[in-house]
Amino acid sequence: MIKYSVLLLITLFLISCGQEGTDNKDITNEQESDTIALSPEEIFSSTLVEDILQTGNDEDLKIYLEEEIYPLVSNSNKVTLDRVSASLYILTFDDNGVDKNFIIQKFYSPVNFEVFFEKRETETDAINQYLK
Q1: pTM of the predicted structure, to 2 decimals
Q2: How far apart are CA 83 and CA 126, in angstroms?
Q3: What are the pLDDT tens digits along the chain (132 aa)?
């Protein structure tokens, strides 16, 4: 009787190990397909928001960068984004060898219950503004 109980426990253990490996493979495949499915615009916004700003996942800012900024800077050799305050950013990019800067400001409209952004070109970049 003990012999069969031990055999049953070993069989159950092996079955559960096999299922665990399958779940991990599924998760890995899902993660790989998510990465592959990103558009150039999404890679651009994710890199600026998550890697450069390191502010987490501001979806409103990402969408604005994808739709409004990416078409303007997609041929640039370098782009960076600096956070000045909770609602103010300075975007610096190379435009045919000339550095250009946009101030991007985040607003909330209580009338429409929405967040929106406005940009304007400026001569000031983060280095000139904060380092002397």
Answers
A1: 0.67
A2: 9
A3: 665 565 555 665 666 665 555 555 555 555 555 556 899 999 999 999 999 998 878 899 999 999 999 999 999 999 999 998 999 999 999 999 999 999 999 999 999 999 999 999 988 766 666 555
